[in-house]
Amino acid sequence: MTKTQIYKFGGASVKDALAIQNLAEILRNRLRNNFVIVVSAMGKTTNQLETLLSLKLNGQEYSENSAILKEFHLEICRALFPDEHVIFPKIENYFILLHHELNKPISKHNYDEYYDRIIGFGELLSSRIVMEFLCSQGMLILWQDARELISTDSDFRFAKIDWVRTRRNCQSQLKPKLEQFPVLTQGFIGADSTGRPTTLGREGSDFTAAILAASLDAGSVTIWKDVPGVLNADPKIFKDTTLFQELDYEQAAQMTFYGASVIHPKTIKPLANAGIPLFVKSFLNPNESGTKIHSLAKTESIPTFILKKDQILVSLKVTDFTFIEEKHIHLVYEQLQGLKLRVNMLQTSAITISIVIDSQLFKLEQLLEHLKGDFEVRYNEGLELLTVLHPDHDTIPALLDGFEVLIEQNTRNTIQIVRRVK
Ligand code: ASP
Ligand code: MG
């Protein structure tokens, strides 16, 4: 049997009826058995579900937002299916289930678990709609609940994979189906050992594709995007971008670490370990070659620009007239780890530790609370972190035009700048 191929379609590639028709065209001549299709929620659905959750958390009315979200899905279906199609009652069902979940009590304490029960509805809806549409186009496809495959721990919202159980599930449940039919499933969602829904972190559908690939010993993964492949900068922010024809796993992983949003940061490792190539291609120009990420002896070191928005700079000054030592850094990292906050940049001076972190609901408050006993804490919000890999130093001043620089860090191959609009 030929090796499994995995295609992942993100939110933008299923954002409306035209996009779904385009997805079907991409699959029409490529689909065969031993093929897995992973889909994300449609368009901005996940953000809208997050809005529903925050309304619920604040005791506000969410029924109007939920009605808008339902109408968004129904409208897509009206363009794709005849009136009497089974997809319409299916969508009604999903929204009844969603409301049933939303009627349960929520608090700051059960928020993460609650979040995971709600947020996966986006993927469930989208995978149903895409599956039904492909079937209506004569492509017979099986629908698979990803929560039966992706086994995780109970770390809600940031669940870690139980690789052994996931592999077992894939081999015993997915493989036999794949011998006969292509299978369509959801990205981003999983379940813990007691069956409670979990999620893998925002934008986690790419990671799902990689997990399934590793667990099925797949031949390749292709991520279909609205960009031509992996570029040396985000074309929505920077002009004159260059496409990488090929990238080494390590360089790609580094780019995602610094915040390149083209692929989810956790995607590369399982593929690199198993030597499975990752293609990043444009769903707008599916016949173009895009970028191939695999093992390369040598990579081009063209300057690469990565911008992370919504950053917080936290400055921690020791209060006991000592200097910064390892124990201080250890203390800070311990608190950050407890809150699942990742450091995007770290700088120390004689008496201060500066860290740059993503802005996340509740987290800053809690971090400050934990650290104020040991440090004098100050912070700035609403910042941007610009990372330049393989910098061409002449081009840096232009990047700072109109910005105030708060801190900057240079190493031979990397410049990091924390900036805000003047
Ligand atoms: N729908 C989820 C999100 O928007 C997962 C994904 O798109 O990869 O975060
Ligand atoms: Mg998405």
Automatic annotation (TrEMBL):
UniProt cross-references to Gene3D superfamilies, sorted A to Z: Acetylglutamate kinase-like, Aspartokinase, catalytic domain
Enzyme Commission numbers on file: 2.7.2.4
GO CC list: cytosol
Enzyme class at the top of the EC tree: transferase
InterPro entries associated with the record: AceGlu_kinase-like_sf (IPR036393), Asp/Glu/Uridylate_kinase (IPR001048), Asp_kinase (IPR001341), AsparK_Bifunc_asparK/hSer_DH (IPR042199)
Catalytic activity annotation: L-aspartate + ATP = 4-phospho-L-aspartate + ADP
Gene Ontology biological process terms in this record: homoserine biosynthetic process; lysine biosynthetic process via diaminopimelate; threonine biosynthetic process
Keyword Nucleotide-binding: yes
Pathway(s): Amino-acid biosynthesis; L-lysine biosynthesis via DAP pathway; (S)-tetrahydrodipicolinate from L-aspartate: step 1/4; Amino-acid biosynthesis; L-threonine biosynthesis; L-threonine from L-aspartate: step 1/5; Amino-acid biosynthesis; L-methionine biosynthesis via de novo pathway; L-homoserine from L-aspartate: step 1/3
Keyword Amino-acid biosynthesis part of the UniProt annotation: yes
Keywords: Amino-acid biosynthesis, ATP-binding, Kinase, Nucleotide-binding, Transferase
Family, similarity comment: Belongs to the aspartokinase family.
Name recorded for this polypeptide: Aspartokinase
Species name: Algoriphagus ratkowskyi
